[in-house]
Design brief:
It contains 15 helices and two strands. By secondary structure, the chain is an all-alpha fold.
Length: 345
């Protein structure tokens, strides 16, 4: 049982949140963006499953998960709506329409921008814990496989009816159904992580072989990212080859975890810092329009076709996140369940 934070886990989370931020700041479609977008979110799901296997039962209860996620979801959803209203004023968009859509997304648990992860994680974790406690292992995997098939079917269904029916009625159906279906896929990655931790597969592999396996897994992910296109996990868009997408996301997440497992984090303090505060970064970097702001500032000095445009914008984004992290770990820490992320398991 884990009784304190694991530095290597914070490094994994730190790398993942960096990839998420870079993926959102990058405006051009590149091979690298396609590669990292395959797995950056799934890393969090797999590592959460791993920690479920290692943590005590009290921290793994459905009640504790809902309590931990509910407050940030409500608060940051409200903040997202406020920032969207402000953005509409400057961008000459309909405030009423945008606000109604945001409220509906929030109430249906679809989520606004990157906040979608919070309800999806909560639903998926709760469902997994029920399956873990109530269903035998073999049958549990059959059910999880069935959930994946359902998700893929709904992905195709939404892709088919999009454009056929009126957009208003489409969104009315899409947001609540997609919120649930998206969570079903998340169950799969959490279950994989749990098996990884419960059976201690990764602990049994020598360091040298683990690195080789990690590299091979990431190469396989890169291959899958080239094959699978037009994808957006958060929007339930699985592309032309959904099972290749799901496989690539898994191998990418495992590749990162294998590569950083029990690594020497002595020289990775900044990455650990980002990992410890990954929740704050996740729910603020797009919600507070920091990605838009950083791109706008950099575009005044650097052309967006410049190869360093995205890297410089990313650097600005990181600098803007640092004071926000300290703010939400200090006077506004109640926004994240009343405690600092450094106290989280």
């Amino acid at each position: 049982m884990i009784t304190k934070r694991l530095d290597w886990v914070d490094c994994v989370k730190g790398i993942s949140i960096i990839l998420i931020m870079f993926g959102h700041i990058e405006t051009h479609t590149t091979l690298f963006k396609g590669f990292i977008s395959m797995f950056h979110v799934q890393v969090f799901l797999v590592i959460s499953g791993y920690l479920f296997a290692k943590n005590n039962k009290n921290s793994n209860s459905i009640k504790s998960i809902i309590k931990k996620i509910c407050i940030p979801y409500v608060i940051f959803s409200i903040l997202a709506i406020i920032f969207d209203i402000i953005f509409c004023v400057f961008d000459s968009q309909s405030i009423i329409k945008t606000t109604l859509i945001d409220v509906y997304k929030t109430l249906t648990l679809f989520g606004i921008l990157a906040i979608w992860y919070l309800p999806s994680y909560t639903i998926a974790s709760s469902l997994f814990l029920i399956l873990k406690d109530k269903v035998k292992a073999n049958l549990r995997w059959v059910i999880i496989a069935f959930l994946i098939v359902i998700s893929v079917v709904f992905s195709y269904l939404f892709n088919y009816i999009h454009g056929i029916i009126n957009s208003f009625y489409y969104d009315l159906i899409y947001f609540p159904v997609a919120a649930i279906v998206r969570s079903l896929v998340c169950v799969f990655y959490i279950a994989i992580g749990f098996e990884l931790g419960a059976k201690e597969y990764i602990e049994r592999i020598p360091n040298y072989y683990r690195v080789i396996i990690a590299i091979l897994l990431l190469i396989l992910t890169a291959t899958c990212s080239v094959i699978s296109n037009d994808r957006n996990f958060s929007m339930l868009e699985f592309g032309n080859y959904p099972f290749i997408l799901l496989l690539g996301a898994l191998t990418g997440a495992l590749g990162v975890i294998f590569l950083l497992f029990k690594c020497d984090c002595k020289y990775m303090k900044p990455i650990m810092f980002l990992g410890k505060n990954s929740l704050i970064i996740l729910v603020t970097h797009m919600t507070f329009k920091l990605t838009n702001l950083s791109r706008y500032i950099v575009s005044m000095f650097v052309d967006d076709n410049n190869p360093f445009y995205s890297l410089i914008s990313f650097a600005f984004l990181l600098m803007m996140e640092v004071p926000i992290i300290f703010l939400f770990n200090g006077p506004l820490k109640f926004c994240i369940s009343g405690k600092s992320l450094r106290e989280k398991d």
